[in-house]
Amino acid sequence: MKLVDVTEFYSQRGGGVRTHLTEKAAAAARRGHEHLVFAPGPRHAADPGVHYIPGPSLPYDPTYHLLWRIGAARRLLRAERPDVLEIHSPYVAAIAALGLRPGEFGARTFVWHSDFIDTYLRGGLERRLALLFRGRAPRAADRLVEPLWAHVRRIADACAMTVVGSRWQKYKLEQHGVARVEHIPFGIEPGRFAPERRSEARRQELLAGRTGPLVLAIGRFAVEKRWDVVVDAYARLAERRPGAVLAVFGDGPERHVFKDRLGDRDDVRVLGFERDRDLLAVTLASGDLLLHGCPFETFGLGVAEAIASGLPVVVPDAGGAAEQAPPESAVQYPAGDVAACVAAAEALLAVDPAELRARAAIAARRVPSVVDHFDALFGRYRELLAR
Fold first, then answer.
1. Domains of the chain, with CATH numbers?
2. What keywords is this UniProt entry annotated with (predicted)?
3. What pLDDT shows up at residue 82?
């Protein structure tokens, strides 16, 4: 099969969609399929298997670019004549891909990577409308975002299937009338993230002489990730446990807001975006606890990697992170509630560490593999093409 993916969710720094598509390229190559990604980027950007369409950087996060040359994108996609044309973002990439006619591709599909309507718009609208409409604010917000859901439905109607990584996203899309939604769970790299990679030396390196616990957090520095909850919850936790350290993996447009909120704490290690996947795996396996604040994850790759590493997790009770939370080694808290987040962390830290790690190791074995994801996905491609 010849597989072509088109997306705007492709950061020069890295990120969940880029990781997904990189793993897809490797999976396709192992199975003898041809794979190509079309994405906007800087004029001179170059990556194997990626065709960059030059476009301006976005103001909020300059590591992402605008796919504004719709005509050029369509000409390039037509020239490839893919067996499967897959849309990985609902913006201009979708408009470009929907411009192709039947016969210029085999099957067209859509992957729902970002719950952009509720994440970026609906919650803010509801808060602003509360003063005007009081008890009717949710209904008023629903009416205002309905044209966006109509846009999502148009994309899905033009595709043979819409793929989601979590059950809650499948339910949400179906409630909004989106057609042919299929739950094919995303997954983590097999063999890389595992409890056996725990290193006491790495743990002590990050503690730097402090007594612990070593608290980890991972994610893009962006407003929807709710780093305010993570930072404020850790600050209260550290008051109760003076030897604690917070180690953070992440980067993004809100890095300055994040650092300003931290202040001049000497018990926080901001480690940036970790490109060494093996070092990340060792660190996740060596921590005592993961704090997570984002209630909008469509899957939550970082949370999945932490669970696969045998790391106990504290997650909000919404989104893909909640869906993944294993009962043996996770505690959920009401999304956005800092005090509840602290209480959840304390509940896990109160368990004997050896017992908690044993529980987490059991949960780690249930995390889905990216191999399983692409086996199922490519199988569905074959079925769609056979029609």
1. 2-187+370-386 (3.40.50.2000), 195-364 (3.40.50.2000)
2. Glycosyltransferase, Transferase
3. 98
